[in-house]
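Sample entry (407 residues):
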Amino acid sequence: MWSRFRSFALLVLLAACQTQPAPIKVMTIPQPETPPPVESSQLPAWETPAAFSDLPNWPAVKLEAAVSAFKRSCEKFSNLNLTSALSGSAPWAGRVEDWAEPCGALSAARSDEEARALIERVFVPIEVIPPDGARKFTGYFEPTYDARRTPTPPFTEPVPALPADLIPNNGKPLQRLPDGRTRPYPARAQITTSGVQAIAYAHPADVFFLQIQGSGRLRFPDGTTMRAVYAAHNGHKFKSTANWLIRTGRISRGEASMQGIRAWMNRAGPAETRMAMNQNPRFVFFRAEAEGDPSLGPAGAEGVPLTPLGSMAVDTSLHPLGVPMFVQTTAPGLGGDWSGLLIAQDTGGAIKGPVRGDIYFGTGPEAGERAGTMNAPGRLWVLLPRAVAERMRAEGYASLDMAPAAP
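Predicted structure, serialized as tokens:
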């Protein structure tokens, strides 16, 4: 099952154990094929890596979900060039070949105890310290919505398919006009009035939230289910409809949840609901996929299915995909104070910053309820292969530079 690497398991836990760590200098990181040499004068002083015993509740943390998720990331690694950088935007993560030993070691783990011992042998935890002090963890899930194959009230809103006139253009989509000219892709209001092709039809509020979540499952009256998987967006920045509803007095701050906004939409008329949705100019398109393994989520940005409480979305201008991360945070949906190992396998437009994660909770209403309770500060460590950590120290890396990559 594993080619060159066998299973690359639980990667990166950035952990440092200074009580008052020095701030990390901001520096633009290039997009190299292989990690460039780093001038020690450009970097802050090296922070002492943590011991695994320093990680909050490490001996009791459940590892099965993260190990399973990491093995899927290792499959992706096995298709990459061995000598290329694991990530162009995070050269500190080393080369693909550096991850072969961790992947191979964790492929043999058959229990949490075995996995814990192997992780401690092949990884070094280093804490990520944000230059601006910002730390935030949220949760997301894969919703399930009732749908129809043809518009049938109240299932009248198209779940929009990827249009033929959209040109990706490096994250700034263009629209190809009938005469061959191109222009920036229109905002939500213009798209919805012009009409879109659909992979299915659902309640307008459900389609709106599906676009915010980025993917979901559609359930039809005959019992069949399909996945609506993120395909592209129109290039406009995300703007919060919840903030607009609060600012205009339509809801209170306490009602600014998915449930509260849906309740307001049910009270408001179609025209006012459409006006509220149009406050967010970003518009997401989907492709239809078979459900596949119902215990796994949709494919994330890394191209592997997401694992409930084993996968996390991160800022990919700062972090590599496929890397293991240890998180300490708190949320009612996690049972209060929580520590766990997660694999960076997804990203999102609102996920910006070095200590900013969006934890994947799973599929359906219960997962949604739990994810909705998640909004708290926390700490983040990356687990680096020992060879990478030692090379960083030898080359003068002080700690991880969390400056965003040049646009």
